[in-house]
Amino acid sequence: xxxxxxxxxxxxxxNNLTIGNYVGAIKNWLNLQENYDCYFSIANMHAITxxxxxxxxxxxxxALLALxxxxxxxxEKCCLYVQSHVSAHAELCWVLNTxxxxxxxxxxxxxxxxxxxHAENVNMGLMDxxxxxxxxxxLYQAQYVPVGEDQRQHLEIAxxxxxxxxxxxxxxxxxxxxxxxxxxxxxxxxxxxxxxxSKSVENPNGSVFLSDDRDTIIxxxxxxxxxxxxxxxxxxxxxxxxxxxxxxxxxxxxxxVEEAEAEFDGxxxxxxxxxxxxxxxxxxxxxxxxxxxxxxxxxYLDSILKSGAERAARTAGKTLFKVYxxxxxxxx
Length: 332
Ligand code: ATP
Ligand code: LTN
Description:
Helices cover 55% and strands 7% of the residues.
């Protein structure tokens, strides 16, 4: 049998997920799980680079796992686990820190954004975020990493670090490649379509959360910023608001962008925005119900995490062992 390629991705259990996270990440994982050896983690170690309420963090960790499963990620096919359950992540991160330069971390876009947003807490972890992410990926020798457009820079660094280590010693890490989807790799904010939709925003009207109820979803789409023209056409450059809505509609109504354009040809913005809201609300309602059902079964969730952590630790342990050997850590 041909050996399957390995694929790795993760989401931080911070805040509630937005439709951006769903479209840019989880939804793509569904098809991928059929053909790859998949590891999907809950990145709680990344989450604490920004202050978290401990009780909330615990709650969101399980909620994210329940969401993975509710969306159709199959724990029998994929390894689902919590990052902090596998100590190799912190250990490899430490080694990789010594192959990473302060200057390159200071230049990372996300670091600059987040340090501006959390000026009171520009901690070392925030700066080290990309190195921990590199450790995540490299531990599993992942060939592919499906993420949204916003993670491109982090993936480049992971590749650089892998190559640096391989060149310094001998081939140790698989150099990973990003998998960026054509449609939906970047869903933008409904109030400011020049920005990506994010789960940690000041203006909650710009982000649609997977936990929003029907009325909230429809209201947010009705208020979405468009432009002063009246044609419904995909043109991200000149019509960022309308193009973003077309992208969202095409994903949630399972149509191509061209089909969506044709469907709304000659119709008004009001009608269009209502239809996008309906399509999103229709898709999210059953997901929310399924998530609540799974979340009530704590034993089931714990059993997924236990076997996930064991499997992840086995794979990660092998890589860490090789790394320790190459760098000259005396082994007993
Ligand atoms: P935060 O706003 O708290 O930094 P985030 O919304 O960026 O978080 P992450 O946990 O950092 O979410 O990312 C999870 C996954 O979702 C990543 O693969 C990321 O690329 C993807 N993603 C995040 N926002 C979007 C978006 N607006 N459009 C498409 N994909 C997205
Ligand atoms: N930083 C990522 C989350 C993440 C990740 C990873 C993604 C942490 N570790 C490893 C892919 C591979 C984000 O999406 N914001």
